[in-house]
């Protein structure tokens, strides 16, 4: 029986199963497929006549292999569509120290991450409650370090559509009080974000420090 969003009340489940046990099930389910990719990648490198081939290869699996071997922080952009295997997404996220994403259904993929990893959720205007309820609180229960980055009006595409004193920018709660249809139309369907990178840099720094700390403790 599930309680709240993406959470399990262990006391109501036989064997005191938790959301972490669900992650272990995913790990077992995808590991065979992942092992097959790893073997193919090793074969590519061994059969290559050029020592730089693996550095030039840009398919998803080889990029991930390079990321694992490189101890320095590296950015991996995870592009997906309806045909992308969940095992591929799982492999990338289960190998990362931190994930950054804009609030939306795809944030559910935090369940593919290792506990003690970092989840940074970019929170558009008008989505505070949903961001915390659906992903913030559940990710903390899952054992992740959660960082919420709430954008300012100037970081929203809505800033160029409405006057600076419009409640859509300054009082999203009053707009959301009109009902879900207003929230969806204005803040979900009608909004894009453009980050103030200097401001966002602070969140990345906190994530980096936390990750280094966890590695030194041998927990990551």
Topology diagram in text:
Elements: H1 19-47, H2 53-56, H3 60-69, H4 86-93, E1 98-102, E2 118-123, H5 128-142, E3 145-150, H6 167-170, H7 172-176, H8 180-188, H9 197-217
Parallel strand pairs: 1-2, 2-3
**Count of helices?**
9
**Terminal residue distance:** 30 Å
Instruction: List unreliable stretches of 5+ residues.
Output: 47-61
Look at the helices and sheets and give the structural class: mainly alpha
For the report, how would you describe the main beta sheet? 3 strands, parallel
- Rough shape? globular
Helix content: 40-55%
Radius of gyration: 20 Å
> What's the count of strands?
3
- Average pLDDT value? 82
Structural domain tally: 2
Question: What does this protein look like?
Answer:
By secondary structure, the protein is mainly alpha-helical. The chain has 2 domains: 1-95, no CATH class; 97-220, no CATH class. 48% of the residues lie in helices and 8% in strands. The protein has 9 helices and 3 strands; from the N terminus they run H-H-H-H-E-E-H-E-H-H-H-H. The protein has helices at 19-47, 53-56, 60-69, 86-93, 128-142, 167-170, 172-176, 180-188, 197-217, and strands at 98-102, 118-123, 145-150. A 3-stranded parallel β-sheet has the order 1-2-3, sandwiched between helices. Helix 5 (128-142) links the parallel strand 2 and strand 3 (145-150). The longest helix has 29 residues, at 19-47. It starts with 18 loop residues before the first helix and ends with a helix. Residues 47-61 have low confidence and may be disordered.
């Amino acid at each position: 029986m599930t309680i709240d969003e993406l959470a399990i009340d262990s006391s109501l489940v036989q064997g005191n199963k938790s959301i972490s046990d669900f992650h272990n099930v995913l790990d077992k389910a995808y590991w065979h497929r992942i092992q097959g990719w790893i073997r193919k990648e090793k074969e590519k490198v061994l059969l290559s006549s050029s020592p730089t081939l693996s550095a030039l290869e840009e398919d998803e699996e080889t990029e991930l292999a390079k990321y694992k071997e490189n101890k320095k922080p590296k950015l991996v952009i995870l592009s997906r569509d309806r045909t992308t295997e969940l095992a591929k997404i799982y492999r990338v996220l289960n190998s990362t120290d931190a994930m950054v994403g804009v609030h939306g259904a795809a944030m559910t993929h935090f369940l593919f991450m290792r506990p003690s990893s970092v989840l940074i959720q970019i929170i558009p205007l008008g989505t505070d409650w949903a961001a915390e309820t659906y992903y913030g609180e559940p990710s903390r229960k899952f054992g992740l370090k959660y960082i919420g980055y709430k954008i300012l009006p100037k970081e929203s595409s809505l800033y160029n559509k409405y006057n600076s004193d419009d409640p859509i920018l300054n009082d999203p709660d009053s707009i959301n009080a009109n009902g879900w249809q207003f929230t969806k139309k204005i803040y979900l369907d009608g909004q894009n974000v453009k980050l103030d990178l200097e401001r966002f840099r602070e969140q990345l720094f906190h994530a980096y420090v936390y990750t280094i700390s966890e590695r030194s403790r041998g927990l990551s």
